[in-house]
Amino acid sequence: MEEEEMHIGLIGLGKMGGNMRTRLRAGGIEVTGYDRNAEVSDAASVAEMVAALPAPRTVWVMVPAGKITDAVISELGDLLEPGDLVIDGGNSRFSDDFEHAKELGAKGIDYVDAGVSGGVWGVENGYGLMVGGSAEQVARVMPVFDALRPEGPREEGFVHVGEIGAGHYAKMVHNGIEYAMMQAFAEGFELLEARKDLIKDVPGTFEAWQRGTVVRSWLLDLLVLALKEDPTLAEIEGYVEDSGEGRWTIEEAINNAVAVPTIAASIFARFVSRQEDSPAMKAVAALRNQFGGHSVVKSAE
Q1: Is 171 annotated in the active site?
Q2: Where is the 6-phosphogluconate dehydrogenase C-terminal domain (predicted)?
Q3: Residue 72 CA, distance from chain mean position
Q4: Could you say which of 178, 228, 235, 276 is catalytic?
Q5: What is the CATH number of the domain that holds 141?
């Protein structure tokens, strides 16, 4: 007897969610998606999406972490039935998973958390997946994970990290490392730019690092692409936001007495990037003037 095609719901069809829907469908998974943007949505409402799914239902949530995810989880709790499963694939804090699982579990609805990495390129290259939940529930939706992950051995793009919360915890640490790696490339770029008298080809230098060197990586490949489009990055403002995972990583490091100076420095650098003028550096300039008579640059009227 031919195995029935898996059919899931997907809430949130933005840059990541929309691409994931495309990859899932290409991998043989039927997807009914819902998004507030009617132009990309398959259903007019979450309720209509749920009604289109065969029981037991599986719904993947791919919306911004925090209050929006909380609201979606609560709505699904009212719409789904015992035996259904919710997967939170957004960037939720791992501690939120405990609350979401408890809320849904009280209604007999199962829960899995999935840290997802791959960005806008995941639709072509596949997504790295870090999953938390019971072995039974993870096995139940393994065809979904297999459709999303990169081609090749499963263990190179997928890991069942542990129980509920473990997937998002692993993704949090992944993103903390990502912050630090990006900051290191950024600082190297600035130093190379500072010696343009000596270094005549900054983009070419990074490009030459793509093969054979110990710093070769996908992040390096992406920086090379960015420099090909804008060799001095003159068209970009040096303003960098953060989505929360770096902060959570540092908080967890403090709670567990683990030193993460590189990750901490990278998130603090992002804070500095958002200042037009630094109050801290004003204080340093004032102190140098007071104790040593060093000159200060007066602010413009």
Answers
A1: yes
A2: 167-295
A3: 19
A4: 178
A5: 3.40.50.720
Domain of 66 in residue numbering reads as 7-163
Distance from C-alpha of 90 to C-alpha of 93, rounded to nearest angstrom: 9
Domain membership of residue 279 (yes or no) is no
Helix (H) or strand (E) holding 261: helix 261-273
Selection from 44, 38, 91, 81 nearest residue 59 by Cα: 81
Beta strands across the sheet bearing 110-117 = 30-34, 7-11, 58-61, 85-88, 110-117, 128-132, 158-162
Looking up tokens 């490949």, which residue turns up? 221
Interval 239-294: pLDDT, tens: 899 888 999 999 999 999 999 999 999 999 999 999 888 888 888 888 888 888 87
Q: Judge whether 190 counts as a catalytic residue.
A: no
| pLDDT, tens digit, 9 for 90 and up, residues 127-174 | 999 999 999 999 999 999 999 999 999 999 999 999 999 999 999 999
Quick check: is 184 in a domain? yes
Flag whether 297 is in a domain. no
Q: Which of 171, 200, 245, 251 is catalytic?
A: 171
Number of domains the chain contains: 2
